[in-house]
Amino acid sequence: MKKRITLLTLVLIVALALSACSGKSNETASNDNGEQTANSETTQAEKSQEDELETTVVRWNYGTSGNVLVTIAQKMGYFEEEGITLEIVQGTENADAMQLLSSGKVDVVSNAGTSNPLQQIASGVDLTIFGGHMVQGCMPVIAPAGTEWNGVQDLIGKKFACNPAYFAFTGAIMDLGYDDPLSAVEWVTYDSYNDALAAVVKGEVDYALMGTGQNYSVNNMDEVEIVTYQGDVMPNYSCCRLVAQTNFVKNNPNTIKAILRALIRAQQYYEANKEECVKLQAESIGTTEEYVAAYMLNDHYIVHVDPLRNSVIRAWNILDKTGFLSDQAKEINIEDHINTELYESALKEVEEKYSKEDQEFYDRMTQFFEENDL
Q1: Buried b (16+ CB within 10 A) or exposed e, 261-271
Q2: Half-sphere exposure of residue 65, counting CA atoms within 13 Å on the CB side?
Q3: Residue 369: C-alpha distances to residues 244, 302, 340 (Å)
Q4: Single pTM value for the model
Q5: Per-position b or e across 222-257, b if 16+ CB within 10 A of its CB
Q6: Kind of pairing, strands 302-303 and 134-136?
Q7: Which of 110, 166, 247, 285 is the most exposed place for a label (fewest CB within 10 A)?
Q8: Distance, CA of 103 to CA of 307 (rounded, Å)
Q9: Which residues pair with 88 in a beta bridge?
Q10: Shortest CA distance to 303 belongs to which of 329, 333, 266?
């Protein structure tokens, strides 16, 4: 009898022990799973916080000529998907745009060229170039009909209606071996491209540089002809850069990347649908499709979101050598005012998400970055 009681007791002890072990094991598993879930949620929350936009409303100036990539990004909802709302602030001239930017009345300027922001930086305004609009504007050089063109050397000793701050020409002339391009050519400046056009027609100058928007008119004139384009004189010279105050870029990196992602997607759409984009841009700036097609469907018109670091540095050096930067420029490292990291990061992020739509496009974008920024 005692043996039976003892045996029964042992069975109960073992059962209780097993039950206790089983209970402890289940409790541990529950805690482990709970910790893993919590850790996962924490990581997602941290990542979400890291990617959160610092600013959702961006005040933007693109002048009267518009910006086709901005137009597309707005029309296709790319900015909206990124959580960005643009507040367009008008300005009539490049100088107006830079004044708006330096005074803090706009956050981003996209159509004020390259010379203007570089001259602002040289004078002590703390700006950063973080992307681009046009690599090359479709800017024709015109002359009286029948004029033969052999190259930039044809400008030597001639009257050229062009602001010598357009570094593509002074740089190309220095490449010919002229140390002082300002003396090698008789530079004549006018208040508008229309005045410069009239000067060619009247025979007051030999050549004149026209703006991108003059392509339609000069292509329909018998008195003048296009002899070359600024992009032929200096390929990838850097036309219009994306510029902001340095503090805005530093304080809003996620917002800047969101802008760039939207514009990169817009560039992909533009390159795949140029005919449609002609219509979109004509509607955006309130003009005819023929007017827009005259430059947008010309191979010399190249838009690109890339910061174009190497070309910007080249432009800075040319402007410095030709005296268009203040003496303070000697103490400034222009590379400190070019941010390529945010663009590179944005390109990788948008490629990961959308490369299946057009892998060739993203391969070209990566190659372009490697050639022009590294």
Answers
A1: bbbbbbbbbbe
A2: 20
A3: 20, 15, 9
A4: 0.85
A5: eebbbbbbbbbbbebbbbbbbbbbbebbeebbbbbb
A6: antiparallel
A7: 247
A8: 23
A9: 60
A10: 266
